[in-house]
Amino acid sequence: MTVAAIVVHHRGYDTVGATVRSLLGEGIPPDRLLVVDNSPGVDAASRLDAALGAGVRVLRVPNRGYGAAANAGVEEIRRCCPEADAILISTHECRVEPGAVTALSAVLDGDGRVGLVGPILVTGEWDVVWSAGGVLTPVLGIPRHTGHRLARSELPDMTARQCDWLDGAFVLYRVAALSHERFDEDFFMYTEEVDLHLRLADRGWHVVCEPAAVVWQTSGGIPPYSLARNMQMLSARHGSLWSRIAATPWSVMRRAAAGLRRGRVDDVRDLMAGWRDGVLRRRHRDQPG
Predict the structure, then answer these.
(1) Whole-angstrom Cα distance, residue 181 to residue 100?
(2) Least enclosed by CB within 10 Å: which of 112, 138, 282, 289?
């Protein structure tokens, strides 16, 4: 299988070089590796060029969010690398355990029904699980990471298995799957990968987590504003009636309580702003025409 790679970059000058070197070390050649940069500022281009070094291709795009950058990268890869069977999309802070890309590629090679596959994501000193694939909770359909915050040694032995969605930090997509669907750019950031993966699953593509592949990343989780805003769009598209009514209020109240316990009053303000903007966004999307 011929793999191309996209690194979505936004002001990650201290980490993007290591991410690119990690992917080159996995055997992805420079002519099939593209950095999509949406960083603002007059010095953004020179800072990124210095971080990457010579010979790395860069596509510069306006900052319309992660999904828009990924979509632009997929279009460019399909134009310049028509031989690619699969496209790896990574954020700018990922580092790869040796053999991870090969393990992911083997899953696509071995089963034509698999449309996308992701690794075990770890954080900290490579010893804390961030995500071993994602699920939707049974009643409200809220996205949850499998194994989140377990010590890596505590993660049960697993083989490659289907899941509902994958964390968008590092995912290998079959090109044929991405010809059917693309990221919804209205999300801007966070949960856009959940939406895309659920749509691909609705088309019959399998979503798989491969534990033989391990990738390190860092994340602070979803910010309060994005949680309240984007959960409404996600549940409106994919949720049951009960989920559309209750998923966002439940998520907002749970996050607000946690913020207040920590004395973070700003979290509550941001949740309310996101909730308001999500309602307006849903009404706009529901308007005919």
Answers:
(1) 25
(2) 289
